[in-house]
Amino acid sequence: MSLAPKDPWEPLAGLTPARVALGRAGSGLPTRELLRFELAHARARDAVGEPLDATSLRAELAAAGLPVLHVTSRAADHRAYLQRPDLGRRLDEASARQLAAAGGAADRNDIAIVIADGLSALAVLRYAVPAVAALLPLLEGLRIAPLVLATRARVALADEVGALLGARLALILLGERPGLSAPDSLGAYLTFAPRVGCLDAQRNCVSNIRAEGLPPDRAAHKLAWLIREALRRELTGVGLTDESERALSSVSGSR
């Protein structure tokens, strides 16, 4: 029989991964919950500090039949990438030349897709390939630029990539900043008319792509709807609301 008083928040603990109804030991947390917190914090720190294994990811993409161009940002190493976000938003000179040549040799593209490490290489290794593999069949009829793998990249790097590849729309999938309950969350950002200097208000985001959040196949359907609507309306950001669930319900209800 427990002598501890029942926590009134306890019923909520089974509904959310958030840290609620943890209990109390004197003026602090029970040892079990303290150890769980320290483990989650360590996993989040590891996710941020671990560089992307680009060789392994390129091999996985190649096995899925997805050849890629590999580029890097202006951040010279992982430490600089973490300390200087501005460097992660621009391509280094060699990468810019490579994409300019690829873009100049191609017809006008509808979309450029970038896979990048972001702040959780773990998320990218787990979910980027399944998300892209589920998305590409939904983009039939669109002109897709060569897939780009970027290391030490921030969201805005896709603006420069899309512009150099002559794409009407840029999509970047990258690891989101880890939380204490999600060290492996993948985010996807869409920008119409990509160019250096785009604002965050000009983007749409689909976040929390992971097994315990939004599975890659469902994320792919959301992204496909947003991509086609963005190209049709010629905008992204605050002017484009995600109505993919409503559209899917309408299709299901008409059968």
Draw up the topology in text.
Layout: H1 10-13, H2 31-49, H3 54-63, E1 68-72, H4 78-83, H5 93-104, E2 109-118, H6 121-135, E3 147-151, H7 157-164, E4 167-175, E5 186-192, E6 203-209, H8 216-233, H9 244-253
Helix pairs in contact: 6-8
Describe, in plain words, how this protein is organized in 3D.
The protein has 9 helices and 6 strands. A 6-stranded mixed β-sheet has the order 1-3-2-4-5-6, sandwiched between helices. Helices cover about 40% and strands about 15% of the residues. The chain starts with 9 loop residues before the first helix and ends with a helix. It has a single domain (about 50-245), classed as Rossmann fold (3-Layer(aba) Sandwich), CATH 3.40.50. The chain is globular, with a radius of gyration of 21 Å. By secondary structure, the chain is α/β, with parallel strands linked by helices. The relative contact order is 0.13. β2, α6 and β3 form a beta-alpha-beta unit.
